[in-house]
Write a structure and sequence with these properties.
alpha/beta; Aldehyde Oxidoreductase, domain 3; 3 domains; four-stranded antiparallel beta sheet; 17 helices; binds uracil
């Protein structure tokens, strides 16, 4: 008995010394990182200890070899997909997190309708950003936790399948991701790179296109940080023998007009039916074209035309419906989006003066959506899928005093006023029009 409690104490002391080392800015060894990841999963490291180490990593960073060790530890924390079970080229796209970014819901069916296989592992909401898994779960019955056999069967039958981190694939990412979401430890280059690449490498993709967001709504606020993150992930993909490219894209304003789970699915359906916002449509085509190009379909111009045609012809919409059906979701709401359950309360935010929307603190928009119920405030929360924002004006638009700039949707009356105040102070209105940034800021390849 005494022996057992001594062993337990030694383990606790060990994680404390790992935390202490990182707190002092000292690099961790591969075995310390493995010990941390295994301990998080087997319960020998408590959530509070894991969160303390994540915070120390967030503050003091990790060098390339630590990041690579964490990526491989996440990849190896569960099963690696037996890719031989999937017939065809497996391609994937992954974003580093944005506000209103619903492109995965559009890109996956576009490329699957053109013959690529998409076996995608997506996360839930993270920090102020939304997650594809939550968005899909806003469709009644949609199952993002298929078993490996079910997922592989779905990919072979319909060409695409989107699951979330589970106890099968990348369970360490599921654990660390959930802790990061509620402990303010998301915006760290090594944590983001290892989270994304650990998941991608576990599923055995052949081609990976990364959408690295940059600007006020992204975790990387500057182009320099976005480029460093992109380079780190592209090099990890290449080292693992995957064709990998990264687009650096603008997140200084929300993507599209809808922020929040079912609101974003509805906007994605609009894009798939050829009547969605221009920015979401353009980015979805560009990301799809890169995936097709990496997979050897031809040059960018040709791949772009294929992607455009998949949208125009309705082939991509058909693939989306097939995916929803194959994963148990209610397809009625896809054909008639008015059937999505709506929020109880609509609250309108009005322009405080006339002028151009000069810039927005887009992270604050994400925080407002979370406050309205679209995200989690603590571990285990279930989001309100109908909550979020519908924007009526964005950067560059002229508004008159009193015009509605955003409609807030929630079921929690107490938070509507607060979220409204956040949106007002996050929206800068000026007499002069802003210079508009291009949606695609840069590309990192070989
Ligand atoms: N997406 C992920 O999967 N992980 C992150 O850390 C950020 C975005």
């Amino acid at each position: 008995m005494q022996f057992l409690s001594k062993r337990k104490e030694a383990k606790i002391l060990d994680i404390i010394s790992v935390i202490d080392k990182k707190k002092k800015g000292i690099s961790l060894s591969e075995s310390e990182i493995d010990f941390f990841v295994k301990g998080c999963l087997d319960g020998s490291i408590q959530d509070c200890q894991a969160s303390a180490l994540l915070m120390a990593i967030c503050i003091n960073g990790m060098d390339e070899s630590e990041t690579s060790a964490l990526t491989l530890a996440i990849r190896d924390s569960g099963k690696k997909c037996d890719r031989s079970g999937i017939n065809g080229i497996i391609a994937d796209k992954h974003s580093t997190g944005g506000v209103g970014d619903k492109t995965s819901l559009i890109v996956a069916p576009i490329v699957a309708s053109l013959g690529l296989k998409v076996f995608k592992m997506s996360g839930r909401g993270l920090g102020h950003t939304g997650g594809t898994a939550d968005k899909l779960e806003s469709i009644k019955g949609f199952n993002v936790t298929l078993s490996e056999a079910e997922a592989v069967e779905a990919v072979n039958r319909t060409g695409l399948c989107i699951i979330t981190q589970s106890d099968v694939f990348a369970p360490a990412d599921k654990k660390l991701y959930a802790l990061r979401d509620v402990t303010g430890t998301v915006d760290s280059i090594p944590l983001i790179a290892s989270s994304i690449m650990g998941k991608k490498l576990a599923l055995g993709d052949d081609c990976i296109v990364l959408d690295v967001k940059c600007g006020s709504g992204a975790f990387m606020k500057t182009k320099e940080d976005a480029v460093s993150l992109a380079e780190l992930m592209v090099s990890a993909g290449k080292k693992a023998g995957k064709k990998t490219a990264a687009l650096i894209t603008d997140m200084s304003k929300p993507l599209g007009y809808a922020i929040g789970n079912s609101l974003e699915v509805i906007e994605a359906v609009d894009v798939l039916r050829g009547k969605g916002p221009e920015d979401v449509t353009r980015l979805s085509i560009e990301l799809s074209a890169y995936m097709l190009r990496l997979a050897g379909f031809g040059d960018m111009e040709f791949c772009r035309s294929l992607a455009e045609d998949a949208l125009k012809s309705g082939k991509a919409f058909g693939k989306f419906v097939e995916m929803v059906r194959a994963q148990g979701g209610d397809t009625d709401v896809i054909f008639d989006v008015s059937l999505f359950p709506g929020a109880k309360i609509s609250h309108f935010v009005k322009a405080e003066k006339s002028g151009y929307i000069y810039e927005t603190d887009t992270e604050a928009y994400g925080i407002a959506a979370k406050l309205l119920g679209a995200g989690r405030k603590k571990l285990g929360d279930v989001p309100d899928f109908s909550a979020g924002l519908l924007l009526k004006a964005k950067t560059g638009d002229y508004v008159s005093k009193g015009d509605i700039i955003a409609e807030l949707r929630t079921s929690d009356a107490d938070c509507a006023e607060d979220a409204g105040r956040i949106i007002s102070s996050a929206t800068v209105i000026s007499d002069s029009a802003p210079e508009m940034t291009d949606l695609i800021i840069g590309i990192i390849e070989d």
